[in-house]
Protein 1
Amino acid sequence: ALWLKPFFRRAHSTCAAMGCHPSTERSVGPKQTARAQRPTSECCMDNPAVFAAQLGIPKKVWPRVLPALANIYRQRMGRTLDKPFELLLLHHQMPNILDEISKDLSTEARRELKLCMQLLPQRCLPPVGLGTFNVFADGSRANASSSRWAPIAFAYDHGCRMFDFFDPPDGGVLAVENDISRIGSELRGKDLSGTVLISKPDFLSLSRKGLRAQFLDMLTKLSLQGTQRGKPVIDLYMMHFPYLLIENMEFAPEGEIDTVWKEMEKLVDAGLVRCLGVCNFSQQQLDKLISICRIRPVVHQFEHHPFCRNREMVEYCQSIGIACLASIPLAKGSVLSSKYFRQKHMTPAQCALRWNLQQGVSVIPGATSESHILDNLASASFSHAIPDMPVLASTVSKMQETFPNLYKYMACDGIFVQSNGHMYCSTAATEGPSEALPKEKEQIVRQIGDIVSRLQIADGPQERRVKICRMLRTKEHWRDISEMLVIPLPEFAAFGRPQQLHNCIGARILYVSHHLATRRHADDHAHRAVVMAARRWAEHCAVPEDEVMLWVDFVCLEHDDDERERTTNSLGLHIISCDGFVSIDTPGYWDQAWARMEVSLADTIDIPRCVLRATSDAEATWSFEALEVDDLLRTRAHPSTGTVEDVAKWPIIHMQLAVARAIQGRVAYGDMAEPSAVLEDFNPSQVQSLRHLRKALAERSHGAFVAARSACSDCGVPPEIICEVEQEALAESDGAGISIDYIFSTFATLAQEATGKLDPTFKDLSDELFLTKRVGEGLLCPRDLKVGCSFLDTLTSRNRRKATHFVSWVWGYTLHTVTSCLQRWLESSGLAVGEVFVYMCFFCNNQWRILIEPSTSGCCDLEVRFAKRLTDIGTMVALMDEWHDPVYTKRIWTIFEQYTAIKLNINVHFTLPECPARTLHKHLDQGKDGFGKVIAAIAKVDAESAKATFQADEDKVKRMIREFGVEAVNDAVQHSIVEWVGKEFKANFHDLLRRSSVVSRGSILDDAMTPRRNSELDSGTILGDAIMHL
């Protein structure tokens, strides 16, 4: 039986590949199977019975229905109805055609015919075809010993009746590995009347070459004219992407999609193409195209496999009469090692293909050998149902890996926009700084993925690290990755040196994550915390302390720069090699992006995680516990929303997140690890529902949030867990600030384009952005879970992080006033622009609740939350527009903010724009008189006469101020402003001293005792008087 198995498989594959779509399968014997699934070369009218059987048209109906359909098609298209998918085109152009041809049929026959047309998108294409992308190059390498690798001819001879190819750019590797003339030579002389040929234009040169000329060149290379009984040769001509490209594989925003589609329609009109299709479109793009086209697409080809599901797109296409074709159905081989696709009677590849076929989606897998082709074709004949598998938290898109910079213009985020009478491709993805990795880092991620792919499902941590070390020692091209360095716990307790990890038989390795100081003396807080964490973990796991090895950064990363970089690159491998993971919970630990990244890596393979809560210096108060499922949910947060002490760490964090995604794909669907028992209290559907809920909140998608919340409730997730997830999103949004870097760059350009003014005020921007452009419309607000969010919540997490400073300012300021104030303050504070995230009401408050909803006046609870917000942030930056007649001191909100900051003892930094600051310093240089003029001008504060934008705000704040005492408020704010002027004077005086290089410090001070010699010395004479005045 084993000896005969290859022959049976080949015979079975050949017969099975010739049949109907699996949606019409019946349980038949071997002889019936071979007879019913033999290849057909006849057109519709030559053998209508076979044609009807393929579509599932009842036997009693087709003799009357098919001739009528064929006659109508001939009248409209000028050619015979030869292939099933052409009925989709006819149905698109005549939606009521069934009513016309079924008038004389019985009610039951009409019902069966209607059902047949509804299922037509699932039956009109052969179930399995052959994708020819790089098939010659991949197959030649795999079949090096074979004298002739002819995959197209071999597949055709064994029953394949659908081939997908594209017109490659002239010259280069793609043209060699996707040789159109070779495809034509292998199909030449064969009967193609029952075969579906799918082609796509050259997506690189389409913008400079005419589509018709390019198509005719492709036909010339193919040289298949006359080999098919009816023309045209190409059955489906498909738009490869919803955009055009230029030579360097970059997006071409000038590409007119509607113009390209009209050129494709002309090919149908000229009889060169039967039907049209699209590839990689989003639902919005498909809707837009259908609304403007004359000839609708009949097929949509997109990435669809168990790791990248798009069930919504499948259902949508089938509902509007468009057939679905899955590209990359095996995820470039990633599915082959999935434990969910291990069936008795099918290979993993057949299971994965069958998963698509069960949903009515045809597949076009590639192949590197003849046996692959046979196995793929045989997948259509199996009647075994493939059970569904858990859904990944994040999809594994091979298209995204191939086109990382272009993916946002297709799939879910791609959109079409109208401009100048044409349709152009754009994206709905929130724009922000690119997190794309450099090529060398991408190579490292691939290397780590290669290493992980060699691990087995039965491997424990010990086996994993032994295999990893062995691979690193034997493979020279993994030189950017280092072996793991650990230190024994007893040696670490005595501050010993780390030793290199070998096989470590019997040892247990603990990874310690912390955010502590790295001082290296005996009573160091970090050292004591790590030692206690390790000892508690050893006690918890019942492991002797002398068998515990530690990985802790301030010991194991203490090497030269090259070795440190290699160790950092290898962090993901190190973490998955550990037996345990302990977080030392100190204030601010969970807010750190680096700590969140380490936790993400640990969770890829569900390493048991524990926490040592060391919130004070008193060790007696420290507690140690193993994290349960609800604790794990609470401690998971995306690193992009965390903080870093050094912005240079962000590229490292992004690389490690890419590593985490690579590991997660292998772990969840590969051969690495079984699900951890730490999640045993939650079933997979509950865990997946919570992940969808978090994702919907992060993406601000209201529809997805409603669906995910309902799914959580339906699958039994406790309400308190759902509430905690929502509260996390609320806290993240409510405490966030906007990046100053974003204000200086992207927002400045946006403001000028939106208003058409070089220096607009924020009142102008409010009208344009919130009332006209309606920024935030349709997005979920994570604070009240309603539609309509703040400007801040529309930004990416790169530009939205925990606020570091509160900005007190006035909406009447111009854009230049705000940016100049912030720039001067940054220069004086010494802070880096990437480290500062400011809370500004324009961006952070939900203007949908204030400006747009008429029931809200704007004062609904702003003052109630202000004190808490200011306390949480801890620092205020006050933007003064002028010093001689400032608007700042005439607004009631700024007076109230200043008084609240004084009352809460909050540190306040005043700042001026560049020009007013220069005039201020000139007046201070004039001595006592100038100082007096400045104080008299800038310290005029009168809360009673101050104004607010909303009268309700003004009345309410003034009532509060009257409770405090108007004079007391005025005096306190005046005193704060005068203190700032004194600091400016003092800084100006010290600057004068620094610039006095001719006169010594002693002579300057001596001369200051006898002033009035020049303006610089006049400043010195009044220093004492100024301080006394303050």
Protein 2
Amino acid sequence: MLPLFGDERRRREINLGGSTSVSSQAAILDQARARRIEREALRRREESAIRIQAWWRGVSEARRVRQQLRQVFQENVTGLTALRCLVLIGQDEALLGQWSKKMSQDDELLLGPARGSDREHWTTLLCHISVLLLRSLGDTPVTSSAVSHLQVLYKLLNPSSTTAVLGPPGKDLSQCTTQYVVRNDIYRYLGRAITTIRPESKNNPSLPYMVKLLFLPLTNFAPSSELFARSFQDLVTYIFTLPVLPYRIPLASLSELSAQLPLTHLHVLSPCISSIPATTSTLSQINIVANLLAFTPPRYASLPVSSLKAHLQLLSALLCALPAHALESPLPQNSQPQPTSWADDSDSDSEHPTQVTVVGSFAPRPILPILDSRTQKRLQILPSQTHLNSLLKVTQQHPELLPDLVTMLVSLNIVWPSRRDKVLGALLLYGGGGFVREMYRDHVRATPLGREENLSSLMDPVFESYWPSLLLLTDLYTQSLLTVGDDEFFSNSRTSLTLNELIPFSRTLFNIAFTLYWRDDQTRIQETIVPGLNLRWEGVRERITKCLQAIHARDSRRPFMPQDHWHVSSQIDMNSFIEAAVYEEQQVDETVVSRVSPRRQRTHFSRLSPRLGVLNNIPFAIPFETRVLIFRRFVESDMMSRGFDQFSRRDRIEVSIRRTSIAQDGYDRLSGVDLRTPISISFIDQFGEPEAGIDGGGVFKEFFTSLCKEALDTDHGLWLANKKNEIYPNPHSYATEPHNLNWYRFIGRILGKALYEGILIEVAFAGFFLAKWLGKQSFLDDLASLDPDLYQGLVFLKNYTGNMEDLSLNFTVATDEFGLAKAVDLIPNGSNVPVTRENRLQYIYLISHYKLSKQIKLQSEAFFEGLSEMIDPKWLRMFNQQELQILLGGVNAPVDLEDLRQHTNYGGLYDDNEPTIQAFWKVMEGFDQEQRRAFLRFVTSCSRPPLLGFKQLTPNFAIRDAGSDEHRLPTSSTCVNLLKLPRYQSEKVLREKLLQAISSGAGFDLS
């Protein structure tokens, strides 16, 4: 053979000159290596040349043979030899089109040869030709030959056509051909063909035949056969994954497909349900859901239990595989995310600064597909009340379906959070509202989750089947409490849990939540998911925490739980807990925290430390007294970090205040001052003269108490009081003027100073306003304290059984500004949205939310801005509303004289057995509670006892000998909690003088 690239073999070089050269050993090796590489390259070139030549000869020969086969084919297009030639030629569109047009016109030509001696050959060749036709359709479905291809395929797969020509053997031919095309992916090719034809061209003549081919394989096999299951799985995988499938098919064909789909045998998919999401894309999974909703719901009532079970399991698997928000259209860039709950919409109309989002993983977020509007419309069926009611009705008839329905609903709420309220609302209303109690009694009461013996293995897969029921009930109960007033809650209504049921249920939730917060491996909580659900353990913890907080809020207002129900004191050493919490608080990077969304801060602290997680999310797990100590330690730590010493007079800010204008002078002189700095007050009396005395803390406390009393006076227009004399910001537009908002901001700073210094303020705030200090929302149960009539009206609406149209309500609320009535929309276009039985819970929530939150939004924000300058919001989150009121105003409890006496120090001639002291305590025992409070105010500047008893009074209460002049009145130094008591010989005189002193109301000139 002549070399392709010429004779490139190297000839041996012979030196005839007789000269010699001396080379090193390394040079000789390099030369040898170079020659070896050169020989190898030459060998590879020769082998490549041989392969290229062989390939070219093969291509040329194949072309020649194929051309010969074409010539033979043309001699008798409909004969057996032509069919063999066509199979050997393969994918030749022109020849396939020529053959299918001939065969589609004459059934005898197509099927007749299957009678004779060549029956087996003809049948085998038809199977191969069927696959070639399908491939042609998949590649080019819009051609002149497409219809004839489909007609041939339809005749081959349709037993009616084959038996009409061949008799009974025709059925075997159809079945044989069907088996072959199913094994060779008929549905994949049909799916590609249908996808190529745009929905606007659904009158294409090929589509009716394609639709027939979709269900023919399912009619040719027995439902129990392997090929039936394979066909059904391929139908779901390749056809139901097509977008807007019902809109791609002519109406007549769509009705035919719907009638022929063997949905009664959906159970054959059970073994392969997990593989369907694993082999399809996110968009395909969404399309399967949408297409199932197009065909299955109308037949729920007639489907057997096994098929309904498979349907629910398939929906659950698909939803579980989808990323969150995948069923919604992606939001435009830079737009705010939509609220996922009624309760999340509280501040949607305000502007927020740039915030850091706390993420559970640094893996890239999945790109959500853009959904066709028709797909979106179809998906709306899934959370609709009609659809859910039909599922619930079937489940009521077949209780064994409930676990699968629950799993599907939980998965739906996870992947489509903006529809969660709609789903939960439908469940709460179904059947008169008893679903919550049914869920608890039949599926949650006996759960092993949350039991003491199982807490260490809480996250094990062995408990997979128990989580959906618990999580759905948790969400349902949390949702129900939004629109349940205290009267209904404590009435043991049949639509909710009884108090006896709520005790073990709440303890189960509490054990789970505490276990998840107290784990050291918080990374696992953030990154791993619950077995069987597309939900991280962090999400489980958040859901359970939200429910616990709502239950605890009820228990705080009207206690019904057993003593220590909420505490974990036996599991934790509180002293070490306090020390560790203070240390971890000091390590928090406030620059990061300030940029984290307020809604996500609790999650952020949970990731930083188990203790901060507990204190910011389920603080009630720690006794109140311990949390007060932690709060004071936080303040002390903050003071130390700023270099402040509240008992030193160095670096104090000196401020003069007129007694006749305490509030205005305080506003003018303290608005620009860092109130965490120690402040020294000197009073100017009504004559313009400074009052005697040096402020060692007592003068400031008196000023502060007077300032708060004046600034919070309801006569000034900034505050209103409810029937319990609890105050809240005035919702009138007058209160939102800039000057008044500055006053709210200043008052927030003043109350923050009170909390910072531990000064008790005698004021009671409404619970719904205190909730805003803690970043919580207020609901129907809080409305009773604001507007009892409106509250009763909403309770009536919730329980109304008549025709809702008779009430003529819409989603608006009436307001009155300066005598002018105005309707405010509660939702966009609310005046045109009637209140119905289905949406009335949302209406009740929105009305409550407007009255309790939106009306006072600007005032509350200004107040909280000032408060946050003084007190870190996460410190306040350690308390609920009632506890925060105690922290601010002290314990509204009787003065415990025994406790006071045990913690009293004596000076001068006095001790506990001295006659004047004995008489003093007898007089105090004779005082009523109002007189005792007046005495406390006289000696400490506050009429309420300290939070943790008189042992926490700093310094301790003391009585000092003030001489023997019985004409003098007792005096006090409130800065050191000191009573200066003359040595009265008569108990009667002591009582008169003491009452005169504590009732005089004089200033510090008295002492």
Protein 3
Amino acid sequence: MPAKGKYLLNEQKVKQEALYRKFSCISQYQPLVLLLGLSALTCATLLVLFFSLRLSVHGHVAFVGVVSAALCVFLAVFLLVCAEAFTQRWTMLLGLVVWATHLSMGFTFIYSTELIQPWDQVPFFLFIIITVFTLLPFQMCYAVILSIVSSVSHIIVLSVHISMDKAQPRPYLISQLFSNVVVFLCGGAVGAFHKFLMEKALRQTFQDTLRCLGIRMKLEIEKRQQENLLQSVLPVYISMEMKLAIMERCKCKDKEAQQRLVKDNNFHSLYVKRHENVSILYADIVGFTRLASDCSPKELVIMLNELFGKFDQIAKENECMRIKILGDCYYCVSGLPVSLPKHAKNCVKMGLDMCEAIKLVREATGVDINMRVGVHSGNVLCGVIGLRKWQFDVWSHDVTLANHMESGGLPGRVHITEATLKHLNKAYEVEEGNGHLRDTYLKELNIKTYLVIDPRSKDPSQTSRNVPKHRVSDGLKMRASVRMTRYLESWGAVKPFAHLQSREGFLTDAVVNGKNRCKDIPLRSAPKIPESFDESLEEPFSLPAPPFSTNKNKSQKSKFDEELHNEMITTIDELSSSKQWEKSEEISGLTLWFTRRELEKQYRTIEMPSFKYYIGCASFIFVCIFIIQMSVTMQPRLLGVTFTALACVLLLTLTICFAGHIQKMFPEKLESCHWLTAMSEAVVKRPFVRLPLATIATTVIVIIALFNLVFHSTEQPKNSSTADCFFIKNGSINDEDLFYLPYSVYSCILALLVCGVFLRVSFELKLAFLFIACAIYYIIICCTKNALFIKYSCLLNGNSSSEEFGDLLKKGGLLKHPQTMSCIYITLFFFTMLLISRQDEFCCRQDFLLKNKNRTDKDEIELCENLTRLLLENVLPAHVAALFVGENKKNEDLYYKSYDCVCVMFASVPDFKEFYTECDINKEGLECLRLLNEIIADFDELLSKPKFSGVEKIKTIGSTYMAAAGLSGTPGQETHQDRERQQAQIGIMVEFAIAMMGKLDGINRHSFNSFRLRVGINHGPVIAGVIGARKPQYDIWGNTVNVASRMESTGELGKIQVTEETSDVLQKLGYSCECRGLINVKGKGALKTFFVCTDCNKQQGMALS
């Protein structure tokens, strides 16, 4: 990768990491607030308990002072956290203040009285370690450092202090300190495990959010691209109606639903409307056919694109809408879709401008071409008919008249009717047109015509001032087509579909995230774009020309990354602290359940690939508890037996979870044990498998934690606590026999940490576990083993038999009395794990919602992409559309191809012209068009059959249907097999024509008509290409197309007329052809033609399919 590319990539990584840190900071706001609330509540509870038990303030000044000060600190930090700007800037500092306050409280609790034990405040330091990882806003490395500092400082301080106190022998000091280390190690490991999983989930959420933003932006672009694409072919008022219908069909994924949708309507949808008071312009380039015969494919497509691009520009300037391009014929309408009072002036002005443009070309290149224009004003029916290859078109008698005005006109002149003249209001001078002398249709209708006098012709300076001087030497050296191409290229017409990729009119934040769907189509090939930081954003996206692109040297991809970065900053800023507490419409505030049942069901059944690691970490807690118990127990043999039994159960659980991994470790030995993989997959996918395993694991851990409390027995008198201290005083028991009690409680507290391990397990299950476990702990500590804890308190406080419970508390304080301390810390961890579990559940559900939204957006994007592709393929053949929207699109230049052998068919319904009438009964011709729509739609339905997959509809011209076969093949050098395939396409085209006749017969039976099809077929070389900037259109040109058109126009009803060459191929394929003889074809002279015998072909059932 070039140095510049590496720099950009590193810069993007740095930006992304900074974004993630900001995102992480905001996401950690809620846990920090919860911790502050819990800490403040704990301080307040300690103070309330202290004063309610009437403990002496003088004897516990440090305790009261530090707890009160800590309460103030927590409240102050809470107020600062509410100020978002301060929080985002000083998050880590605030976290350090909270950690330091907790640490100060811990050491104060240790030194609050003279009585210091090795087990002193171990739970509180465990609390500090857990909160550093789970609730405080620290990165993993800082959390590890702070947890090590917390645990090591506790161990060092106690070790030094106790080792210096030689007054009291401590034979179990090493075991106790070792147990402390194991407790801290277990807490740190669980916290780090939780932190790792949460950070991983948070980073994934960040990436999903980033991707989701990109998808939403892409969705906006796709929607706008669709609108531009559809509007490039159809007016807005029709395109939106058609788009809704297409989306409805796209959403019906199964065929039955589509069939039901079709059955609901007896007729195909008709998107046609009537418009009055419009002007229709037809224009034909005179001499272009002769010029085109000398052109290469590239030259022909460039010439047509430049000429029609110029005409489109002229149309836009004169408020005209181009309707269609037919070969070298161009026609448009003024007054659509909004009525215009100057529609006639617009069309006449456009016609004059077109003639002037062609005149400039003629004078500049020396090529003999001209423009013949006809204009008529009246009413039209406009819209779209058929199911494939939509093209906006107009129909009416006035349209037919405008067409004949062009054919009856004169080169270089605008030929208008009297109706148009009346709308001009003497804006132009005219002279007699005498159109009836040149066109029989005008003569039959007795149409009076006029020729418009161009005002510029009276002022020579206007016509010559911008004409470039023609260099005679060019004319001597270059062909006419080359001179034309070079001159027209200087106009710089926009390439087809370039406007679809432009973001002009788009929102500035609309950016594509995905495959290269929206790349600009420049006049020259674009440079390669460096890759970006996100794998999901691999493909380039075009950014607009000014005003959007201010720095041309800046890569388009970098601009995209910038916009996405800015959008992500906006999104993160919107995740303000206040909004995190707002009630979500998707999630219930109390239970955290989704308000929609289907969402809740999906969440409950979500796959959990990390579950096996949850069980693994829970097993680590189990081992740590066992080590602690073994270090302090007086019954190691019984503990060993219990541990072995429970470990077997836990090992079985682990084996079930890691069955798939075990099979991969020993593939040869366990090759036949496919059930191992199935078992492992069941754990991941089935909730009813996971929940029993989680329940078994937690139960096993609680049992091992309770071992010393339940099974450890010490001989004691049967009387109550009044005789306890007397029993102790006589030496039957000492404090060293009961030192295991605090560590038994610590084991129970460690068992509660399991809730932090099972991240994505149901919150209700964790809540039930916490309640049941804590209830058991309270019952054992306060009831079952109450006497034992009181004995231990007496031993710690001087073995005085006269001291009651209150006296023991006054002497040792709240957190030095074993029984009170145990209850306080179990309660503290109950609420801590409850908050952590609820926060985990909330985060998991939010993550699920985001992914669900991401999935929904992806589905919508897929629908939009399919719709865009469908729309584009209704403008272009599929293999051509792929070049404009596919992953390997090559739309930097004009599309053109030359084919050696293509079969072209024209099929018309001549009787429809007589059938078409405009009267009130048929809604001024609308009902007639409805029948034509049914005919064309039925023809289009034939194209979906596999047999006719090689047939491509080109266009419809009135009631004429144009199609071609052989356009999807690779042009160029054909092999023998390719030639055979091309010849087979001719047979398929004949079969298609026969099928069309069958469809028309069916329509005749239902509509009581007697329409018949007239078909002309020819094959040979053609040129295919896409032209037109504002309304791109795929078309084919060449002598083959012209002859096929003449075969149809000179044919007979109900017959298929072909040329002699096509007849020879058909006869080789087994078709029967009847010689018609020589007929006179315009521009070709006498041609020998043949009729294909359709009746016998129907019976033969050719083997082409």
